Amino acid sequence: MNSEDVKNLCTNIVGLNKNFYSSSNEHQRNTSPPRCQIFRRDSQYLVFEGDQIKIPHGHMGLRAEIHFGVIIEIECSECPKEKAMDFVAGYVAVLNTRLRNSNYEAKGKAIAETHDFPSCIAMSPIIHKKFVEHPHACTIWASANGAEFQRAPLTDMVKTIPEVIEHVSRVITLTRGDLLLCGTSTDGHGVQAGDVIEMGIENTIRCVFPVVKFSEVQAAEPTSSNFIENKAQAGTMLDRDAQEGEEKEEKID
């Protein structure tokens, strides 16, 4: 399975929030693990390497966080953790971005949601699972403009990858091409237009996403008023050329 397959097939992007122990709190690991929360992002806004992260109109920046992502190979529902890895196609690094003032809200439901917008989820190319023999030994990382802002070994996860699949598949049926986010170690790093975000799975894969204002992207496209103006100018030039041609013919006669 490749990125194009995910683009065409993915109907669910579901993640687990608070799935990392605090690296500075060893006591938490032994006594009070954080309570994980399932959240959803809109799959139509998934972008891939070569695309841009676009800040919506009216907003100055975003919060960005990196997740270890799992691509689902076959339909998965109420899957026991002992069989969970059979449903995995491969792994990706995923940049999950939110508006700075938005949080995940469950509102009494099993799955929390937040404000979605185009390009809010960015994914690296897929690494087939056969090339990652020990995924829990991986480390995810992200930087902005060359300065690293997040690094997290998967050994710090509360739930392992099979446990994440088991937990989420009890709530929602995952299908081929779906993207499962295994959690992040921070609450997000502030980014703004002009930043360049690099992320990856250490010693495995890396990719780059520039951050732009959505209005800047739109400004590069011709507006309807400009089109009408240019069309009118072109029409005037054609009329003038035709008139000059008629005058030349009259002189020849």
From TrEMBL:
<dbReference type="GO" id="GO:0050163">
    <property type="term" value="F:oxaloacetate tautomerase activity"/>
</dbReference>
<dbReference type="InterPro" id="IPR011234">
    <property type="entry name" value="Fumarylacetoacetase-like_C"/>
</dbReference>
<feature type="compositionally biased region" description="Basic and acidic residues">
    <location>
        <begin position="238"/>
        <end position="253"/>
    </location>
</feature>
<dbReference type="GO" id="GO:0046872">
    <property type="term" value="F:metal ion binding"/>
</dbReference>
<comment type="similarity">
    <text>Belongs to the FAH family.</text>
</comment>
<dbReference type="GO" id="GO:0018773">
    <property type="term" value="F:acetylpyruvate hydrolase activity"/>
</dbReference>
<feature type="domain" description="Fumarylacetoacetase-like C-terminal">
    <location>
        <begin position="13"/>
        <end position="209"/>
    </location>
</feature>
<dbReference type="Pfam" id="PF01557">
    <property type="entry name" value="FAA_hydrolase"/>
</dbReference>
<dbReference type="InterPro" id="IPR036663">
    <property type="entry name" value="Fumarylacetoacetase_C_sf"/>
</dbReference>
<feature type="region of interest" description="Disordered">
    <location>
        <begin position="225"/>
        <end position="253"/>
    </location>
</feature>
<protein>
    <recommendedName>
        <fullName>oxaloacetate tautomerase</fullName>
        <ecNumber>5.3.2.2</ecNumber>
    </recommendedName>
</protein>
<keyword id="KW-0378">Hydrolase</keyword>
<keyword id="KW-0479">Metal-binding</keyword>
<dbReference type="GO" id="GO:0005739">
    <property type="term" value="C:mitochondrion"/>
</dbReference>
